[in-house]
Write a structure and sequence with these properties.
The protein is 46% helix and 13% strand. The protein is α/β, with parallel strands linked by helices and 306 residues long. The model has no long low-confidence stretch (mean pLDDT 94). A five-stranded mixed beta sheet has the order 4-5-6-7-8. The chain has a domain of 183 residues: TIM Barrel (Alpha-Beta Barrel). It is globular. It comes from Ruminococcus albus. InterPro entries: PHP_dom, PHP_domain, Pol/His_phosphatase_N, Pol/histidinol_Pase-like.
Length: 306
């Protein structure tokens, strides 16, 4: 039993649709798949239906954007199986709005340098909840101003932190994001700690008891780094996850669905926590229903006395 717990579709910055991703997961012999589009859970319903059709079990998930204010760095948090996903809607909308505002400013900067129409970018965003740098680069490739997504043109325009056209803004604070995930009764896993230099933050969050797991197996980490992350996670009784972080055409590093996976032992730990969260959510829901009935009854009695 194995699962790829990190991949993207056209709902964010992937190049393949939901069905294509799930069909490929089946070809790769995966038992479980988590579609973790950035700041949106929109894939959930359709992914469950298609998962049943292809015989791949789908874990509801989202990759949430966050900010480490202490170090002024970006952070990504993977949230799995939120029992109250509506509690994440406001956060997702806010982050998508931030990303889209940045992208619009970047498009304007690019158009000052290259004579391409705005529609050349927008046609590649169809279905996506935001606009991404990869969409802008695809437009530049289409019009002959670049030959690859991550070559010299991309570096000049969008390299962090001094790209000519790069526009960035802070996302919500990572502690707020983690608290909201747990409020939604979801499972919080730190995504690719080495990608954004989040190792110190990771240790602080673990000490504070805010993480349920760490994505140890990811293309951004060397074999040595992956082993060290796994050792650290196991020492702190955290879930050890792995995922391809598949984006299709838009991947900066060659990776495919199923390249990195989560093993049976850690899938079982994940499902155990999901089950526990579901019980807690149900208990809270039942308590709320009882309170609502009592409030209604009291109101009716008061009305009758009047």
């Amino acid at each position: 039993m194995k699962g790829d717990l990190h991949c993207h579709t056209t709902l964010s910055d992937g190049s393949l649709g939901i069905e294509e991703v799930i069909a490929q997961a089946k070809r790769m012999g995966l038992d479980f798949l988590a579609i973790t589009d950035h700041d949106t859970l929109s894939s959930s319903s359709r992914a469950q239906i298609l998962g049943d059709r292809y015989g791949v079990k789908i874990i509801q998930a989202v990759e949430l954007s966050a900010w480490d204010k202490k170090r002024n760095e970006k952070v990504h948090i993977l949230c799995y199986a939120p029992q109250k996903p509506n509690r994440l809607e406001g956060l997702c909308l806010k982050s998508c709005q931030i990303r889209t505002e940045c992208a619009k400013d970047m498009i304007n900067k690019v158009m000052e340098r290259f004579p391409i129409p705005r529609d050349a970018v927008m046609k590649y965003t169809k279905g996506s909840k935001s606009i991404y740098k990869s969409h802008i680069m695809r437009a530049l490739i289409s019009y002959g101003y670049a030959t690859e997504f991550y070559g010299s043109v991309n570096d000049r325009l969008f390299s962090y932190p001094r790209g000519e056209c790069l526009v960035t803004r802070e996302y919500p604070d990572v502690n707020f994001v983690l608290d909201l995930i747990h409020s939604s009764k979801g499972v919080a896993v730190l995504a690719h700690p080495h990608m954004f230099g989040n190792i110190e933050l990771m240790k602080e969050l673990v000490e504070a008891g805010k993480l349920d797991g760490i994505e140890c197996f990811h293309v951004s980490a060397t074999d040595t780094q992956q082993r060290a992350l796994k050792k650290y996670a196991e020492e702190h009784d955290l879930i050890v996850t792995g995922g391809s972080d598949f984006h299709g055409l838009y991947n900066s590093t060659m990776t495919h669905i199923g390249k990195f996976t989560t093993d049976e032992e850690n899938l079982e730990k994940l499902f155990k926590l999901i089950h526990l969260n579901a019980k807690k959510a149900k208990k809270v829901g039942e308590a709320s229903d009882i309170q609502a009935k009592e409030d209604t009854s009291t109101a009716e009695e008061a009305s009758a006395e009047e």
